[in-house]
Design a protein that fits this description.
Helix 2 packs antiparallel against helix 3. It contains nine helices and no strands. By secondary structure, the chain is mainly alpha-helical. The chain folds into two domains: about 70 residues, Arc Repressor Mutant, subunit A; about 70 residues, no CATH class.
């Protein structure tokens, strides 16, 4: 359990008004993101932990603490991406496909990669689709060195 002095420091760090019990919850929750454990340590029932976690002032405090942690540790989006790539490569070398695929899944969701961007594209009309298909055919022709004939097999 955190001392009141530690809690005051956290309170100053967050600048957000919290009860002592909420502050204790924020401190514990920030350790491992287990809302049930944090609720019990803070004196709430385990079943009430998700309700405490979802309070706007508690969410704001956790967000501020995490942002300060990231700033202090000099973690950036680019750093995270490079770590994920390294983890993927190490997992592949160790023949650990589960870990490799997990890293790839996180990479695909990363804001710099956004592998799902194609799913978000909304085509307005058929003319746009036809134009895209024509550009694709042209690329295939040029790649094959045959300007007149295209085979998709």
């Amino acid at each position: 359990m955190a001392t009141r002095k530690q809690m005051k420091h956290i309170e100053q760090l967050t600048g957000i008004e919290l009860t002592d019990q909420e502050l204790q919850f924020v401190i514990e929750y920030s350790k491992d993101f287990n809302f049930r454990r944090a609720a019990i340590v803070a004196g709430y029932s385990a079943d009430y932990g998700h309700k405490v976690r979802d309070k706007p002032n508690v969410q704001a405090a956790v967000t501020r603490i995490l942002a300060n942690r990231l700033k202090a540790s000099d973690i950036s989006a680019e750093w995270l991406l490079m770590e994920l790539v390294d983890n993927h490569m190490l997992a592949r070398q160790a023949d650990n496909l589960t870990a490799s695929n997990t890293a790839l899944g996180h990479i695909a969701k990363h804001k710099f990669v956004d592998a799902n961007a194609a799913d978000k594209v909304q085509l307005v009309d058929g003319k746009e689709i036809l134009a895209k298909l024509a550009r694709g055919r042209d690329r295939v022709r040029k790649a094959k060195g045959n300007e007149n004939e295209v085979s998709f097999h």
